[in-house]
Amino acid sequence: MAQFDLIVIGAGPGGYVCAIRAAQLGLKVAVVEGRETLGGTCLNVGCIPSKALLHATHSLHEAEHNFAKMGLNVAAPTVDWAKMQAYKADVVGGNTKGIEFLFKKNKITWLKGWASIPAQGQVKVGDDLHEAKAIVIATGSEAASLPGVPVDEKVIVTSTGALSLDNPPKSMVVIGAGVIGLEMGSVYARLGAEVTVVEYLDAITPGMDGEIAKSFQKLLTRQGLKFVLGAAVQGAELTASGAKVSYKLRKDDSEHAIEADVVLVATGRRPYTAGLGLEALGVEMLPRGQVKTDDHYRTSLPGLYAIGDAITGPMLAHKAEDEGIAVAEIIAGKVGHVNYDAIPGVVYTTPELASVGKTEEQLKEEGRAYKVGKFSFMGNARAKAVFQGDGMVKMIVDAATDRVLGCHIIGPAAGDMIHEICVAMEFGASAEDVARTCHAHPTYSEAVREAALACGDGAIHS
Ligand code: NAI
Fold first, then answer.
1. Ligand 1: distance of its center to the CA of 21 in Å?
2. Does residue 441 carry a catalytic annotation?
3. What domains does the chain contain, in order, with CATH numbers?
């Protein structure tokens, strides 16, 4: 029986990062992963392949719409789908191999197979039993199913199938206007599909600042995406040419149907813990299927921890990574901590949408007095130079102290720029602190500074 200080179950961003940090802290570590490659959903069928397709199709859009404006005359671009898929596979392969390299470098053992936990301190992989002083569940999540919508991953697909369609469809219905729906909807709209997003709520991107969500929807509509809001999907069925989705409008209960070549179900994900044997061990679970943990990621079974999508909180790779580092530090006897008030969220469309901290709606509900500073990218020279003058930065600060409480950006490289505000929030900075920090010109980041200035005496370029 092999013995380890730590066995991590799952090699996604939560699990592999946890393993690396634990090895760096001197622990003898193994990771159990049943996929052929490391990296979990994120690297194999999530964040990374979708970014490859977003990049490729954004480039197509640039060639079709902006090249000629810059005096670049090229023949109308055509799409070689097989080659685009191969490019995507290369990107994924490079990254998953990279994790394998990091495992070797850090002397982490990869136990190939699917794990179960037969008893406290034990992990079974195939016929082999291993012992560990600590076990971390980092098994992630799977696409949640929708009653009456039978997924075949060919015509009715989840994000996994949507990344590897046989051909780009001419029409697509996306169920759910969350992150997956909008990213993949953008990909196929740029490839020429007529994309209709059917969403239960009255706004897209649930939980996002209301004003930002509205303006994001306008931008996406201009790009050709259609939205049916306030619509509860009742079911879907295969037809001769694709699939038919039926939905009910919530305002008047009227029933409608829409047909498309492909239907993407993007109505959320649920924790994946099947096969671990947690029930038999009596590990406490939460009603929505997450493993119950305390502030130190401890489950109800001594020595068993859980992180990432398998526990509560936003289902984001970087949240899982941070928890992976924190739990490794805790297991190694150090102090590990995640600040859940400063976790950014990004939608990688063009323009990008990035957000951290409080929305106006949340602050109103809390009854907290706040001020808002806004700046449009139309006033940002760099953004205009690259045809990205759409969007804005919206900063929200405490009315009395000027402390930054949240920031919401629609614009070029928003997903990178948001970190300036994450750092500001970690340091308890005020808008004035951000405004008095020199920002290079010409950069997109100047728009963040302008929004900070708008919280005080006013932005310069608006
Ligand atoms: P989501 O939770 O972001 O959005 C699902 C949407 O579906 C919601 O707006 C919901 O109201 C709607 N919906 C649910 N049932 C419906 C019905 N019957 N009819 C119509 N609409 C319905 O879920 P999504 O987009 O599937 O993403 C899953 C998870 O993966 C999320 O936690 C997301 O944060 C994460 N993710 C993050 C990415 C990123 O950070 N860029 C990229 C992709 C996924």
1. 30
2. yes
3. 2-143+270-338 (3.50.50.60), 156-267 (3.50.50.60), 342-454 (3.30.390.30)
